[in-house]
Fold each of these.
Amino acid sequence: MKFTLTDQGGFQTDLSFGNLRVSGNEELGFRPYQLMVSSIAVCSGGVLKKVLEKQRLVVKDLTVDADVTRSEDAVNRIEKIHLHYTLTGDLPEVKVQKAVELARKNCSMTQSVIGSIDIIETFTIKHPV
């Protein structure tokens, strides 16, 4: 990937899906921390869905809420991300818990930040009516 400085002070890159603008100013592009949290949340959720499908469990819906804690020092680094999965389907709690643990071990984004960012995962199962 090649990132080019824009006239407004952010950076941009052209990827196969389209143009990505990144800036410390939210009005000019995605903020770097938003992209990092998004990568971790989406990778984790996607791997979780795959693990459940391999167990022949049907996930009718899946959302991931990410609550971010950043340090109050000058760097404002990400200290903790709490991922809460809300799954809809006839899913046994024990199997979902094991799938969450397995997904954590197989998500490349989560594994990339282990030891630097505390990642906490919880879930809620909604059973269809």
Note: The helical segments are 32-54, 93-106, 108-113.
Amino acid sequence: MANENIQNQTDVKNINDALAQNLGAYASTVPGTEKNPVDEKNEKLALIDYKMVTFSLAGKDYAIDIMKVKEIAKAGRFTYVPNTLPFVLGVYNLRGDIIPIVDLRLFFNIEVDARLDTDLENMLIVSIGDQTFGIVVDVIDKVVGIQKSSIQPPHPLFGDINIKYIQGVVEVNNRLYILLDIERIFGSKTEAQAAEEESVRKNMARNAKIDVKAVSSAQTGVKASSKAADTPAAPAKPVVNENVDLTFVKESLEQMRKFSVSPFNEAWVKERFASWAKERGKDKTQFTSVEDADAFLKPFYSTCNGTWWTKEYADSVYKVLPDNTAKQITVWNPGCGKGMETYSLACLLTKKYPEAKIKIYAHDIDLLNVSNAPLLSIPAAVANDWYAPYVATKANNDFTFSPELKNSIMFEYHDCANTNALPVCDIIFARDLISFLPAGAQSSLAVDFEEKLKGNGIVILGQNETLEGTGKWTAHKDGSVVTYTK
């Protein structure tokens, strides 16, 4: 056993040394060369412009970009964190930094033997943006240098994982490596993706063409409407010109902010463009930057989006919750984000249905968000507001939610565009989510809503999204909140 530990420590040191050397060479942007140690005498020097750290999961070869790997380590005795996802083993103190530890095998639903607290795990310490994670794998192999052009697109049959997490496949010395897209796994965006999007935005800004006459007509209509207004203090509602060509708006929003214009939001987009044309003036309606797209979408987001709910908004949601005498209220909250919306909804449901067992399935594709949501602390100002009956105090005097309320929520990593095994639901709460899915996924999700919703259930979307005209839905408006029933 002692000899084995010495060998393990030697392996870790050797790979960390290789990482340090390769990171320095790669960051210098000067192409290097690498000889395969096995076939050193027989192979010619190859141009290396991409390096990856290879490892195995369930006997299959995988790899990730070396630029995302800080180091490798062997560790155990992770500190367990309650109410986290099954693949989160806990947290670990890495030289003073507390980092979450994710078992990549469990994340990909690969069977793992029962482990003891004393077992040491092979870990890749990776950095995604400003976040650091420990990723547990079976065996860490070596650093491999390749030509980036040799990376091939993935085939749906490769690997046991979702193809969207695969960046590509590459063959090196008769071994086929599945190159994982670590940024997608952790819900982040690579610098390369950002640069590519910026290039697309610039091209679109140069090439976008709109119907200037239609825009001018829309602006003229707005001015005419303003002059006809009886009350000068009340701004006139922009006149929507149905003939305006919104192709460039649709393309720009999709490329810049993954916002898909569709029947679920098209009415809002048309109305917003009329206002946009009035604000910007003739020939200035094109989106030349992400800031323009953000400015266009700013009025789209619902009240208290991504933050704690005000009492006024909480009261408006409480009013539309249907009467229900069921012993269990099941809720689906896709796009839960950091969890503030989910906790707010849980408080209202606890108040509305005091005798029922509340079960909320909170889903998101941002792994960091769903991993941290169970640990979310509450600011004092929020804890002393309408949330007070559902708040508890930690040992360090910070505020958190009561165990009963936290246990009613299951935060899970899940892409709602994919199938799921959820039970039928009493409430589906999906604000400002559907518009940020591809058009095809939007239609599929609406069908999923219809299949998952009970006959007496309700769906709540964002304030500027609608299900009308997309199926057999009936809208019910109460103040600023609209509910949909089958």
Note: The chain has a mean pLDDT of 80.
